Amino acid sequence: MGAQAAETLGSQKKQNREKKTQDTVPSHCNWTKSLLGFESADLSSWHGFVCLMNRPTDPAALGVFRFLFGLLMALDIPQERGLSYLDHRYLDGLQVCRFPLFNFLEPLPLDWMYVVYMVMLLGALGIMLGCFYRLSCLFFLLPYWYIFFLDKTAWNNHSYLYGLIGFQLTFMNANRYWSIDGFWNPRKRNAHVPLWNYTMLRFQIFIVYFIAGIKKLDVDWVEGYSMGSLAKHWLFSPFRLVLSEEMTNILVVHGGGLVLDLTAGFLLFFDASRPVALFFVSYFHCMNSQLFSIGMFSYTMLATSPLFCYPDWPRRLIAKLPAFLQKFLPSTDPPQPSQECVYRDAGQQRLGRTTRKVGLRQKLGAIFTVLYVAEQFFLPYSHFITQGYNNWTNGLYGYSWDMMVHSRSHQHVKITYRDGLTGELGYLNPGVFTQSRRWKDHADMLKQYATCLSHLLQNYNISQPEIYFDIWVSINDRFQQRLFDPHVDIVQAEWSPFKKTPWLKPLLVDLTPWRTKLQEIEKSLDNQTEVVFIADFPGLHLENFVSEDLGNTSLHLLKGEVAVEIVNKQTNHTLQEGDRIQLPAGEYHKVFTVSQEPSCYMYIYVNTTEAALEQKFTELQELREKVQNGSETEPLPPELQPILDGSLENVTQTDPVVEAFLRRERRMEELQKRRNATLAERFHRFTTKKYFIFRRSLLMTWISLRNLVLGRPSLDQLAQEVAYANMQYDMDSTATSQDTSPKEPERSEL
After folding, report:
1. What is the per-residue pLDDT across 667-719, written as a single tens digit (0 to 9) for each?
2. Beta 193-194 vs 56-57: how paired, if at all?
3. How is residue 743 annotated by DSSP?
4. What is the pTM of this model?
């Protein structure tokens, strides 16, 4: 009783002292502390800032984020990192051109690449569990950045973000809560962490949002050209009930994305606005998970949002759960003092016999935070240094946070090689010896690709090859135009990461106002008529081939002056603004820009073969309906019988048009079936697909480890093992193809 009374009396005296202290604090200090979480005096000196950055903070929210990040990375590695199809990318002996950041980087032999991925996976699991935490962070981080630097074509903003978060976690004490390390080591169990652990992560997420918003101030985004077709998605159907599709595109897709990115970081920081911000960013990321194939990015961003809440939110949440559940969840007890934090009142927090003061560790933590945040603000605008990576947009896509601001379409890609000794000309299929299409948009990758092709072509008796690229690109609904000079041999061309690329053609920004006119022209055409808009530089020409399927193709000049040469007929036609010419199908032609300014013209064409096929399909559909309703009494010929039962079995005579008709009917039926599937059926399909992804990842990893330890077995046994790993759920191939986005075909002709 006496001890309890003394403790109570001491507690009351302590509260009285704190109250008196608060009464003497100026009102503006209370205001800044209630609003920002710290006092202005904390920033008045370096010592005060160091103390602020090392202020003891509850480790609960950080520990939960560590667990979620490790879990999401463990799920990401077999999928977007590519463990499930690693053998397709790094098969030994595969002749393929690669695009590393540094040319000396090369992939290891396939079996060792599986070891690299296994180490990374173990690191992600270790981070999740907080087991051997520092070592697990290194296990994850080093393989991750090695794989990241190994292939620039796979770069994107969220993959870059994962590496940054992994780097930050390596220096943080994220294993102080809900971790195996804490279970083994009482000093680490439920211990305070320095405030800078939260500050770095919060600033990182703030930068992701805010810089992305700054990038969206680009005129293309503001005017709604960056993602013009996204408003058609079913997720925006509620908005289309009150807005037109055009206004949904401008106000919701582009305007809403701009406002959210600019304000999310600020709104998440303040208590009053945080609930609203959490709702909108959660809604935003849930939509993105359905709109784009971006792996774990949406879920990772959802996991970062609670970092802006009070750090003890997991304790308060767990405390509200039933007692029997709390036994299986992290502790709700207050955190214990930590030697890595700075406690201002020695009477409140004691570490054994002494109180921890500001030391080298605390100063390094504050310095690291300042330098890292400054570097992250600077890097998205560092393109004036790495000018060689700049094209029509600045830098390699991936570290600038310019997410979805630029959309591209490629209409014409031609690769020409010349034998340096004989002068013989030849053409290569666009993308030959590559596993990616992103080389077309970046000068540094084009240089690597040309160098690789020059080595590979020597195996095909082509000596000292010269490589020329003619790449036509439209960015954000502008004219299709050349990206690189087609007369430059890229093998010998000069390129430096710190100098402008001399063979890069400029974006014709003066023609940007034409986009409104181009949209009006497209809307005026019927459903069977297609149009392609072209802009070219003076002194250059476009060589094109009109497919025989395009029976009605014409060229209309919009601006400038061109000369059109029909190659086979050896005839020339000069066109002035407003003129047009009919182009013969199945023949080559050349369009020379002879004016002093860039020329603008458009191809208008109809795919007559496709139109005729659609007409045949309509006739077959009508015939089947007549037979089914009894209005058609004449028996069908044998080659048309399959349209009644939809089966081609036991049929000896089959019309190719009927086969195509039935295949399309099956695809449409399967698509309709998938759209009308119940929630249980969709969940079953989703889980089955993911199961076989992880199954193949683990089996192929096991095979590679066995090969390294025991040696490779016979080819027959290896083939059987790989076939077993490739076993898939018995789905219709058409249904499976609907799960993946179809690749945009390379188009080297009209």
Report:
1. 888 888 888 888 899 899 999 999 999 999 999 999 999 999 999 999 999 99
2. antiparallel
3. P
4. 0.88
